[in-house]
Every structure is written in C-alpha cells, then in structure tokens.
Amino acid sequence: MKTAPPRIQPSPATGWFAGILLGAVAAGVAAVVYFFNPATHRFYPVCQFHQLTGLNCPGCGMTRALYALVHGNFAVAIRDNALFVALLAALAVRGAWFGARLYRRQPAGEFFPVKFLWPLLAVALGFTVLRNLPAGAFLSPGEFAFADPRGRVQSGFHEHDASFDNHDV
After folding, report:
1. How confident is the model at residue 154 (pLDDT cuts 50, 70, 90)?
2. CA-to-CA distance for 3 and 112, rounded, in angstroms?
3. What residues contact 99, with CB distance under 8 A and at least 6 apart?
4. d(Cα 143, Cα 38) in Å, to the nearest integer?
5. 17: DSSP letter
6. Under a CB-based contact definition with an 8 Å cutoff, are residues 60 and 159 in contact?
7. Of 141 and 66, which is predicted with more confidence?
8. Which of 82, 34, 51, 31 has the alpha carbon at shortest distance from 166?
C-alpha cells in the first residue's frame, strides 16, 4: 500500500520574500502612476471591454482613481472608480488585521478566503450594471482638475471625450 508523500511546508523566508516583493511592486506601480498622469500618457493599458461594447467594466477608471489617490484627492478617486477605492481600503484593513495576527503569532487563516469570492463577484457585477445605467452615471469615470501637492494643476478628460479615449483599466 502506497502512502501519500508528506506535505512540503514553505519556509517562513518565502513568505517574507513574497511580502517584500509585493510591496516593492506596489511601490513601483504607485511611483509610475504618481509621475505619469493617465489622462496625458498613452502607455497605460486600454480597456478592451469598453472598446468592444462601449460600456464601462468594473475596472474602467481604476488607473485614474489610483492617480488621484496617490495625489491625495479622494473625491476624484471615488468619482473615477468607487469600487476600486472601496476594495483598496478593504484590502488595507484586511492586510493590517492579517499582519497583526501574524505578528502576535496567532492563527491568521487565509488572506483572501474563497467564501469572499462569490460576494465580491456579485458586488462587481452589480457595480458594472449600475454604472452603465443612466441613473448610475455618477459611478462612471469623469472629468477632473485639481492641484497636486506641489501646486501644479493636474487635469484629465471625460471618459467619453474624443480627445482622450484610453479607458484605462
């Protein structure tokens, strides 16, 4: 009778490496978005769903929302993609809770349990439908202009303006 081989447990160093790598990638993405306005630089990804259907997906406006967040303009970030801002806040809270449990050497479980997947998909689907209805137009990405921390005016274009039709993800 054959028995299953023992499960190989990853070393704690692997978790630290993954956390540091994830933090470095997040800092790099934030730095690129901070210095390069998605409304004026064309190297950001284009939303294929929007190009094919003309509708806004749950990710449309996410890059501009991140741009507004790293410049401290929360109102514009919420205007561009409220779901992204809410999920980013929930991710930060969950990360702090998870990190605190690990620091205290308490069992933390999974970072993102599978039981959260279906409710998250339902919220994303509801958000997508609502932002594409006339009554939910306030959830679609929009025009913005604000001063960044250095006092320079940053401006963007309306999502459906012909002068900028990037529909960043």
Report:
1. low
2. 31
3. none
4. 12
5. H
6. yes
7. 66
8. 51
| Whole-angstrom distance, CA of residue 107 vs CA of residue 51 | 45
Which two three-digit tokens encode residue 169? 């993800």
> What would the mean pLDDT of 37-60 be, rounded to a whole number?
89
CA distance 106 to 127: 35
Contact 73, 146 (CB under 8 A): yes
DSSP code string of 101-128: HHHTT-----SS-GGGHHHHHHHHHHHH
Confirm if 60 and 47 have CB atoms less than 8 A apart: yes
Kindly indicate the confidence band of residue 107, based on its pLDDT and cuts at 50, 70 and 90.
confident
More confident residue, 110 or 143: 110
pTM: 0.72
